[in-house]
Amino acid sequence: MKMLFTSMAALFLTIPAIAQETSIDTTTWFDNPSTLTQTDGASIYAGVCAGCHMPNGQGAKGAGEYPALANNPSLMATAYPISLVIHGHKAMPPLGGLLDDEQVASVVNFIRTNFGNNYTDNEARAELVKNMR
Amino acid sequence: MSFNPEGVTRRSFLGMVGAVAGAAAMYSAMSTMGFASQSNWRGRLNLQGAPDNTNILILGAGLAGMTAAFELRNAGYNVKLLEYRDKAGGRCWTLRGGDSYTELGGFTQHIDFAEGNYLNPGPWRIPSDHFAVLDYCKRFGVKLEPFIQVNYNAYLHDSEAFDGQPQRFKEVATDFRGHVAELLAKVVDQQGLDEAVSVEDAEKLVAALKRYGALNDNLDYVTGSESSTFRGWSHPEGGGVDGKPEPSQVNSLSEILNSTLWRNLTTGDNLHMQSTIFQPVGGMDMIAKGFEEQVGELITYNAKVTRIHHEGDQVTASWISADSGSNEQTETADYCICTIPFSVLSQIDHDFSPRMSKIIDSMPYASAFKAGIEFKRRFWEEDEHIYGGISYTNLPITLISYPPYNMFSDGPGVLLAAYPWGAYAYQFNALSPEERIDKVMEYGSQIHPQYYDEFKTGASVAWHRVPWTLGCYGLWQDREADYQDATAMDGRTLMAGEHISYLPAWMEGAVLSALDAVERLHTTITEI
C-alpha cells in the first residue's frame, strides 16, 4: 500500500528542482518527540542537518543562507563543528538537547569525512563532546 | 500603588470616573490604564505632528512592518518599506490552489487545492484577547469567522492505548473528570479533608462534585444515564420504537491514566485557545492583504537587504534584487524600524552596537512543520461527524485540525494534517516535500483509515526551509538578560517583530512590538 501510494503521490506533487538521490530510509526516524534516535552519522545527518544544509551538504541561500558543508575548510578543526552543533550560532539552533554525546560525535565525524571533506585525523569522541557542553 | 503626575492615585481616579461617567467609561479608563485588558494594547494610536520631511525606512513588510508603516504614514512621516518577497505579509501567509512555493534547496511545490481550500502555514488562530490584531481586522474590513479549537467529537489518540484506536474527546474528558470527582467526593464525604474544608463547605463541595463529575446518588462514576449524558450513549437517544437510549461503558480510571490521553484535555483551556477564537474567512493572509491595501504603495518588493549602516543623523540600507542578485541600490532615512528576523539579520552586514549584535547572533528560529492534505470528500464530517476542531495524537504528526469553514459542503476539503515541533519537526524538515506527505499519510491513516482512498493532493511548509525566516519564530537564549536591550534604539534603528514581544510566534506580538516602536520613535522625534 505504501509503495503504491509513493508512486501515486509522484503524480500529484512536482518533482523538486534538486531531487534527492534516493528515497530515504526512515525506519529509525520519528521515534521520540524530543530527541533524535538515529545513531549512525549518516542517518543523523539525513534526519536533522539535511533540513538546512541540504541532503548533499550543498547549503542554501535565500534572504539569509545556510553555509555549505561540502568542501568546507572550517571543518578542519574538530572542535569547531562540535561547538556549533551543541551551542548553535546565528541561525543555527543549538542541538545539544536533541543529540547525545555519541550522536554529536558521529555526525561531526560524518560531515568531516563526506561531501568532499577528508578530515580523518582528530576524530570526534563522545568524551570531547561531553567536555564541550 | 502608583500615582499620576497630579498626585491622584489610580484607584481614586477610577472612582471619580466611575462616579461621574458610569460603568462604560470606567471600563474604558480601566482598559486604557491596563487594569482590565489581557493584551497590552492601549487602543488605537493617533499620532500627530510629525516634523516635515522626516523619512522612516522600514525593513520587512510583514505584519510588524506594515503596522509601523500604517501608523507612521498616518502621522505624517515619509515612509518606505523594503520587502524581500514579491508579496507582503511575511509569516501571515496562505497557500492556495495555483500558488507555487519554492523552499530552500530548490524544492518547488505547485499547490493543487480546489477553489476555496487552503493551508495557513504560519499563524492560523486569533485569540479573542489579541485586541490589536482584531482591531486592525475590523478597521480594514477583514472578515472573521470562529475557529474551532475544542471539538468534543474529535479524537484523542495514542498508538499504545486502547489498541491504537482513537477515542472521542468527550469520552476521555467525561471519564477523567468523573473518576477524579468521585475520588474527591468520597474523601470529602467521609470527612477525609476536615482540616481543609469546613463542614458547610464539604456538603456543598460534594454536591458540586456530583454534578461536575456526572456521579450517581452513591457518588460513583459508573456506566449509566448520568455519565452517558456527557460521554455519549452506546445506542443513541432517538424517536419512535427504537428511541430509548442505552448507556455507554465508561473506561476505568486506570485505563484513562495509563492511556496518557489526559495530556491534551486542557489544551483548549489555555488563555489563548479559550473560545471564542477566530480565523479570517478565506485564509490568514486576508489580514496581510488588508494591510497591503493600506500601505502597499510604500513597499518595494523583491528587495534583499545586504547592508545597514548609520552615518551622522542618517541610516542607510543597501539592497539588491532578490531575483537577480544584481543592481545594488541604497535607501537613506532619518530613522529605521527593522523587522527582519534575527536569523536573517545576523547574516546581513550591519553596524549595530556590539551588545545588539550579540543578541541578534544568539537568536535561532524554532523548527516547526505543517502539512495540508486535500481529500476528495469531507469524510471526517460525513463518516465521523467531526465538524472543525482538533484531534491530538502521540504520532509524529501531533495533531489533525478539521476545517472550520465550508462545513457540510460536497467535494474536497483540506485538513491540517500535521503540525509538530521539536525533534519531529526537524525530521520532517529534512525530508523532500513528497517524502513528507508520504509520512503524513502513513501516520494520519492510523487515525482515519479513509486517508489513502480519499487522497487528492498535499502541500507542506517546513519552517527551517523558508527562505526569508530560516525558522518559525525567534528563540531567546536568555530573554531575561537580553530582552530590554533588544528593544532599545540602536543608532537610529528600532527592532520590531514577534521576537520583540512576550507573545512570540503570535501576530499580536508582532503588531504590539511595532506599535510600541512607533510610539517611542514618534516621541523621540517630536521631543528633539
UniProtKB/TrEMBL annotation, chain A:
PANTHER family: BLL4482 PROTEIN-RELATED, CYTOCHROME C DOMAIN-CONTAINING PROTEIN. SUPFAM superfamilies: Cytochrome c. The lineage of its organism: Bacteria, Pseudomonadati, Pseudomonadota, Gammaproteobacteria, Oceanospirillales. The keyword Heme applies. It comes from the Bacteria. It comes from Vreelandella sedimenti. The keyword Heme applies. InterPro entries: Cyt_c-like_dom, Cyt_c-like_dom_sf, Cytochrome_c-type_DH. Keywords: Heme, Iron, Metal-binding, Signal. Residues 36-115 form the Cytochrome c domain. This is Cytochrome c. GO terms for molecular function: electron transfer activity; heme binding; metal ion binding. It holds the Pfam family Cytochrome_CBB3. Residues 1-19 form the signal peptide.
UniProtKB/TrEMBL annotation, chain B:
Gene3D superfamilies: 1.20.1440.240, 3.90.660.10, FAD/NAD(P)-binding domain. NCBIfam families: TAT_signal_seq. Keywords: Auxin biosynthesis, Membrane, Signal, Transmembrane, Transmembrane helix. The lineage of its organism: Bacteria, Pseudomonadati, Pseudomonadota, Gammaproteobacteria, Oceanospirillales. It catalyses: L-tryptophan + O2 = indole-3-acetamide + CO2 + H2O. The keyword DNA-binding does not apply. SUPFAM superfamilies: FAD-linked reductases, C-terminal domain, FAD/NAD(P)-binding domain. Its EC number is 1.13.12.3. InterPro entries: Amino_oxidase (IPR002937), FAD/NAD-bd_sf (IPR036188), Flavin_monoamine_oxidase (IPR050281), TAT_signal (IPR006311), TAT_signal_bac_arc (IPR019546). One of its GO terms (molecular function) is tryptophan 2-monooxygenase activity. It comes from the Bacteria. This is Tryptophan 2-monooxygenase. It comes from Vreelandella sedimenti. The chain crosses the membrane at residues 12-36. It holds the Pfam family Amino_oxidase. GO terms for biological process: amino acid catabolic process; auxin biosynthetic process. Pathway: Plant hormone metabolism; auxin biosynthesis. Belongs to the tryptophan 2-monooxygenase family. Residues 63-521 form the Amine oxidase domain.
